[in-house]
Amino acid sequence: MAGIYIHIPFCKQACHYCDFHFSTSLKKKDGMVLALAKEIRLRKHEFEQETVETIYFGGGTPSILAVEDIRLLIDTVYQNYKVADNPEITVEANPDDLSEKRIVELHQHNINRLSIGIQSFFEEDLKLMNRAHNAAEAKKCLQIARQYFDNISIDLIYGTPGMDNNRWLENIRTALELNIPHISSYALTVEPKTALQKFITQGVITQPDDEVAHEQFLMLVDALEASGFIHYELSNFGKENYFSRNNSAYWLGKKYIGIGPSAHSYDGVHRSWNIANNSLYLKSLENDSLPSEEETLSKTDRYNEYIMTGLRTVWGVSLDRIRNEFGEDYQKALLQQAQQYLDNGKLEVSEHVLRTTRKGKFFSDGIASDLFILN
């Protein structure tokens, strides 16, 4: 199984918390679509032995493109790669782009999964984040989308300054009432050089409270698990058969090609990433050149990556795989370093698999970094 990720580096406006690579100028949009198609063609040799099972349009805001542009990129993948019979084809979208006409067009063009950036169903939160949609648009687009798409994911953000537990619970209830089968939910984080960081420094917005975020995370876990969702990755909850096949491939160490400026790729041994600059990306592709850098992952790099991804997921870290793939010394080191977390109940071992417990799940990234082996 392999995946193709296509980064669309454009947005209508900048959300205050976002540090992804994008531009709010659409002047180069048409040229970018052609450059993305060219990169797809130039890299087909990388997947000569692979079957593509997922195509994922991320960003930025992919729904800012015309449906014909998205169709062109999908067709280019089909023309140059071996594609599975029923691939998962996901388009990230914002509610303000999803009129009924647009939803129908996406449905008619073989897209079978929508990932919609709702973030909140409340006006106060959306204004604080500088989202382009309002609360009414958030609900309306989901009501329409459910008529055409079975497989829908939404994003929700918790730990937002000023959002109390009752409002957070209402966000969760609204998602459940709309019968959404997959929810990705993240704590609001303050990234460097974002508008959010600037406003916090100036005292315009209060710093997000880690304790409130932890409490709201546990509320989310309880509410969704009680409603039949499986908490299969730290930030992801899906009904049975509705896990994101694209994201699951990342966490399970499958190969993927990242197309577009700032996109990352992984082949099991090497990680590469494209330049995060639209103009330089376009210039390189004009010359049939791939504007990327590459690193070869050492055994220790691959071990640390498996610890990080494994502890975030329901699949955990297989002690047998650690021994077989990395050696007995790595397995011993892991168990020694994990002992403090086994003792305090944040980790557990069951059937030769190391996993975070309910108590430890929120802290899985920090626990993983404590278990890393340093080169």
Ends: how far apart? 30 Å
Helical content, roughly? 40-55%
Low-pLDDT stretches: none
**Strand line-up across the major sheet:** 7-8-6-5-4-3-2-1-9
The largest sheet, given as strand count, sense and whether it forms a barrel, is: 9 strands, mixed
What's the average pLDDT? 93
Order of helices and strands: EHEHEHEHHEHEHHEEHEEEHEHEHHEEHH
Number of strands: 15
Features:
15 helices; 22% strand; three-stranded antiparallel beta sheet; alpha/beta; 15 strands; globular; nine-stranded mixed beta sheet; 375 residues
List the helices and strands and how they pair.
Elements: E1 2-8, H1 29-42, E2 51-59, H2 67-80, E3 82-93, H3 100-108, E4 113-119, H4 123-129, H5 135-148, E5 152-158, H6 165-177, E6 182-187, H7 195-202, H8 210-226, E7 230-233, E8 236-238, H9 245-251, E9 255-259, E10 264-266, E11 270-274, H10 278-286, E12 292-296, H11 299-312, E13 317-318, H12 319-326, H13 328-343, E14 347-350, E15 353-356, H14 358-361, H15 364-371
Parallel strand pairs: 1-2, 1-9, 2-3, 3-4, 4-5, 5-6
Antiparallel strand pairs: 6-8, 7-8, 10-11, 11-12, 13-15, 14-15
Helix pairs in contact: 1-2, 1-10, 3-5, 6-8, 11-15, 12-13
